[in-house]
């Protein structure tokens, strides 16, 4: 297959299978299921291209000695991604294991999509949530009614493309340059996204770079995110690009993580954008990215003084959706095997 993504991922997949062989007793290999779930990056690819990639991965699985089902390789929908990350963080914080302990919410900002998931306590949240924002989860003999939504196309890289004026999966017409108020005046460069290279540049200064960029970002986000008031009363963990951006500008320790208030992103955005007006920034997209994150959180209903916890690990376990997806998969298998009472 021509896909560079597959050529790059195949050795990694085989390496993981080799690790599994080293750690799982030989007699259990045939009973150990293999599951691979892809996220927004593949959801944004044209359907046939994504399916070709999945078929190639399944071929690698079928050549292994492990249990391979018909649906062992699939593209995870956005809601499942958010719910799985919620399971992970609530399991690691002890909320799922301790009755009566408050659950925490989850914010994940990937490249192609962004998720928000929490367990509502107020009836008003349940009543006012749009269709598709509530989902039921059965885990550990309990049923949870979660507020969970994945915004496809509002991940940091996809949003960056939209702010720049490009379209997902399409080169700029006739190789035209994408000119943006979110880039430093006079900046010119190239940016690659989803195997497409774009020529980008900043526009001539016509006012505050932050204000111009914030206005452009607000146009992209307008009517695209649902605001819910309850988020201000829920403890939230934030992952992925939230963490990376905060660490990049010194809001948290790059290794240990930490806590910040939502308004810190806006403060950092204003500083970075103001600096970029007069001197080349160390990262040409930092003004854009910070402004976007600040606007996104505001649009979701987070006030400036709301504290977020940013971490990559809890008790030395990574806070990704993968652990939660594994728990959910095993739990569903156990329910399938259990007789109906």
Automatic annotation (TrEMBL):
Molecular function GO terms recorded: ATP binding; hydrolase activity
Active site (catalytic residues): 81 (proton acceptor)
Keyword field: ATP-binding, Hydrolase, Nucleotide-binding
GO cellular component terms, A-Z: Golgi apparatus
Pfam families in the cross-refs: GDA1_CD39
Binding site for ATP: 111-115
Alphabetized PANTHER family for the sequence: ADENOSINE/GUANOSINE DIPHOSPHATASE, ECTONUCLEOSIDE TRIPHOSPHATE DIPHOSPHOHYDROLASE 6
Family as reported in the entry's similarity comment: Belongs to the GDA1/CD39 NTPase family.
Name recorded for this polypeptide: Ectonucleoside triphosphate diphosphohydrolase 6 isoform X4
Organism per entry: Delphinapterus leucas (Beluga whale)
């Amino acid at each position: 297959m021509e896909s560079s993504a597959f050529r790059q991922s195949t050795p990694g997949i085989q390496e993981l299978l080799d690790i599994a062989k080293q750690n799982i007793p030989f007699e259990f290999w045939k009973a150990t299921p293999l599951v691979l779930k892809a996220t927004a990056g593949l959801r944004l690819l044209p359907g046939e291209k994504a399916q070709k990639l999945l078929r190639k991965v399944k071929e690698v699985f079928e050549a292994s000695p492990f249990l391979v089902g018909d649906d062992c390789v699939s593209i995870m929908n956005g809601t499942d991604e958010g719910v799985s990350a919620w399971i992970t963080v609530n399991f690691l914080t002890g909320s799922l294991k301790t009755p009566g302990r408050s659950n925490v919410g989850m914010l994940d900002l990937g490249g192609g999509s962004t998720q928000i998931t929490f367990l509502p306590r107020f009836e008003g949240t349940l009543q006012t949530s749009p269709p598709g924002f509530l989902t039921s989860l059965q885990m550990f003999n309990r049923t949870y009614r979660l507020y969970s939504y994945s915004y496809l196309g509002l991940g940091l890289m996809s949003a960056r493309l939209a702010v720049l004026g490009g379209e997902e999966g399409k080169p700029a017409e006739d190789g035209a340059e994408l000119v943006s108020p979110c880039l430093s005046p006079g900046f010119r460069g190239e940016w690659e996204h989803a195997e497409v290279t774009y020529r980008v540049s900043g526009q001539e200064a016509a006012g505050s770079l932050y204000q111009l960029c914030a206005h452009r970002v607000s146009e992209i986000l307008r009517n695209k995110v649902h605001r819910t008031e309850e988020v201000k009363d829920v403890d939230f963990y934030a992952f992925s690009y939230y963490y990376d951006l905060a660490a990049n500008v010194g809001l948290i320790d790059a290794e240990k993580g930490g806590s910040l208030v939502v308004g810190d992103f806006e403060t950092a955005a204003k500083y970075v954008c103001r600096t970029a007006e007069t001197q080349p920034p160390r990262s040409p997209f930092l003004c854009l990215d910070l402004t976007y994150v600040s606007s996104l959180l505001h649009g979701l209903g987070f006030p400036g003084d709301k504290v977020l916890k940013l971490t990559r690990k809890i008790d030395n376990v990574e806070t990704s959706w993968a652990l939660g997806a594994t728990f959910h998969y095993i739990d569903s298998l156990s329910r399938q095997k259990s007789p109906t009472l």
